[in-house]
Amino acid sequence: MHVHPDIKIAVDTGYQGLQKIHARTFIPKKRRKKHPLSKEDKKKNSELAKERVLVENVIGMIKRFKIISDRYRNRRKRFALRFNILAGLYNYELNS
């Protein structure tokens, strides 16, 4: 994975090993059975979730067009074109 070191990455708990590769990776803290989260940890997790929800909504919208969620069976050359068209439609919908 090649990400510029200045870029902040906010992910969910499924990407726990990413912190070893990229220093600016932010992962929510998990509670353990006998160690509940402190108020500070809950606040940090909430702030991280507020940032991530925007990205998750965009991914969900693109999945509605089935270009990401299903197997792409058309020409590979046109995948980028079609994906960019869908992204443009989504951006147009946001601005209207």
Brief account:
The protein is mostly helical and 96 residues long. 49% of the residues lie in helices and 4% in strands.
Task: Produce the secondary structure layout.
Elements: E1 9-10, H1 18-21, E2 25-26, H2 39-64, H3 79-95
Parallel strand pairs: 1-2
Give the proportion of residues in helices. Answer: 40-55%
Measured distance between first and last alpha carbons: 35 Å
Spatial ordering of strands, largest sheet: 1-2
- Number of helical segments with 4 or more residues: 3
* Broad shape: elongated
Provide the residue-averaged pLDDT.
85
Helices and strands, in N-to-C order?
EHEHH
Give me the Rg, rounded: 17 Å
Strand content: under 5%
Structural class: mainly alpha
Number of E strands: 2
- Structurally, how many domains make up the residues? 2
As residue ranges, the low-confidence spans are none
Biggest β-sheet strands, sense, barrel: 2 strands, parallel
Summary keywords:
96 residues, mainly alpha, two-stranded parallel sheet, 3 helices, elongated
Detailed description of the structure:
This protein is mainly alpha-helical and 96 residues long. The chain folds into 2 domains: 64 residues, no CATH class; 25 residues. It is 49% helix and 4% strand. Strands 1-2 form a two-stranded parallel ribbon. Strand 1, helix 1 and strand 2 form a beta-alpha-beta unit. It is elongated. It starts with 8 loop residues before the first strand and ends with a helix.
